[in-house]
Amino acid sequence: MTDILDLVRPEIRRLAPYKPARWNTGSVRLSANETPWQPPGNESSPGLNRYPEPRPTELTAVLANHYGVRDEQLLVTRGSSEAVDLLLRCFCRPGHDEIIVCPPTFSMYGVYARIQGAAVAEVPLRAAKDYSIDHHGIAAAWNDRSKLLFICSPNNPTGHRVPTAELHDLCERIGNSGIVVVDGAYTEFAEADPTLELLGRHGNVVVLRTLSKAFGLAGIRCGSLLGPAPLIEIINRILPPFCFPTPCENAALACLRGDYRTVLAQRIDILKKERDKLAAGLLSLPDVAQVWHSEANFLLAGVADAGEFTARALAGGVSIRNF
Ligand code: PMP
Predict the structure, then answer these.
(1) Which of 280, 285, 277 is nearest to 303 (CA)?
(2) Which of 103-112, 134-143, 253-262 has the lowest mean pLDDT?
(3) For a pocket test of ligand 1, which of 150, 212, 222, 323 has the largest count of ligand atoms closer than 8 A to its C-beta?
(4) Which DSSP string do the residues of 2-67 spell out, in sequence order?
(5) Which of 12, 43, 223, 283 is 20 to 30 Å apart from 249, CA to CA?
(6) Rounded to the nearest whole angstrom, what is the distance from the C-alpha of residue 213 to the centroid of ligand 1?
(7) What is the 3-state secondary structure (H, E, C) of 155-175?
(8) Ligand 1 pocket, 155 CB below 6 A?
(9) pLDDT tens-digit map of 3-22
(10) CB of residue 214 inside a 6 A radius of ligand 1
């Protein structure tokens, strides 16, 4: 049986990461070729004329504490989208390796795979069964070139949450032959959070989280990649030197530390109630045939004519997506 780290592209395993200039030495800092003056309107210390810390250590610690993992198990990324890209670049050799996705799902898994030159095998969700995972299909599609299995739960755009037992089952079946990537972008809206159970039980799973959704911080582009410490250490190597902008780190810290977390719980509650009200309202429309149960902050509805429905919503001032 291979070690999970053997799945990492050999070039990345051998990579000597870039060594950034020393940071915060207390001395006059000429080593990073910065400018000595702060830009207009900026009075922060250190100023925006200075590079951020090579890795946002404080934010890493605060996020790790928030999600209940050790600092070494978490990598701060620019949105969880970047985490998808990092995984692809770390594990998939162009022209050789493959990922498995379960459409309809978040399309960026496939986009980043194609950018990397990795093949994309599709095992569609079972539309007739509440868009649940096709386990037999995944087992049949998994092969020697398969490296990553992307499972989005709750899934965008169906809102369906994959039961935790099924996630365990997928991790066990794939074993050390690949990584199960559980995208938990909408976890805060769901009835269960499998993050800690998964990380505690399996060495081949990573979980993606984001501050873009429930936290209402899409503008600062802050995601987290959670996984086994040795894997996080290797993925960390391919991040750029000063990987997270200072204003974004400060904004995230302010929200994660302050009273905001109480407000957040209330907002999530409101959104869930509004989601259920909207589902009932949609179902009362004559051309809405079905609204699927959602554990996210959106709804999937089956309508008679999706193009016409989308145009009608837009004419009424509401932008929706046609899948
Ligand atoms: N995963 C899912 C399932 C999403 O729907 C999105 C955004 N729509 C993302 C990840 C990316 O989110 P971000 O990069 O803002 O963290």
Answers:
(1) 285
(2) 253-262
(3) 212
(4) --GGGGS-HHHHH-----PPP---SS---TT---SSPPTT---SS-TTSPPPSS-HHHHHHHHHHH
(5) 12
(6) 8
(7) CCCCCCCCCHHHHHHHHHHHH
(8) no
(9) 889 999 999 999 988 777 77
(10) no
Distance of CA 184 to the CA centre of its chain: 6
Q: Which residues contact 106 (CB under 8 A, 6 or more apart)?
A: 150, 152, 155, 156, 183, 185
> Model confidence over 253-291: pLDDT tens digits?
999 987 888 899 999 999 999 999 999 999 999 999 999
DSSP 8-state secondary structure symbol assigned to residue 189: G
In tens, the pLDDT along 212-239 reads: 999 999 999 999 999 999 999 999 999 9
pLDDT by residue (tens digit) across 32-64? 899 999 999 999 988 999 999 999 999 999 999
Residue 49 φ/ψ, nearest 5 degrees = -75, -10
3-state secondary structure of 240: coil
- Check whether 1 has a pLDDT greater than 60: no
Q: What is d(CA 94, CA 9) in angstroms, rounded to the nearest whole number?
A: 10
CA angle 83/87/93 to nearest 5° reads: 150
Would you state the structure tokens that stand for residue 59, as one six-digit string?
């934010």
Centre a 10 Å sphere on the Cβ of residue 215 and count the other Cβ atoms it contains: 21
* Distance from the alpha carbon of residue 80 to the mean position of ligand 1, in angstroms: 6
**Closest by CA position to 136, among listed 145, 124, 148, 151:** 124
Instruction: Among 63, 78, 81, say which to mutate for ligand 1: greatest number of ligand atoms within 8 Å of CB.
Output: 81
Percent of the residues in the chain that have a pLDDT greater than 90, as a whole number: 90
Q: State the CB neighbour count (10 A cutoff) for residue 313.
A: 15
Structure confidence at residue 2 as a pLDDT band (50, 70, 90) = low
The pLDDT > 70 percentage for the chain reads: 99
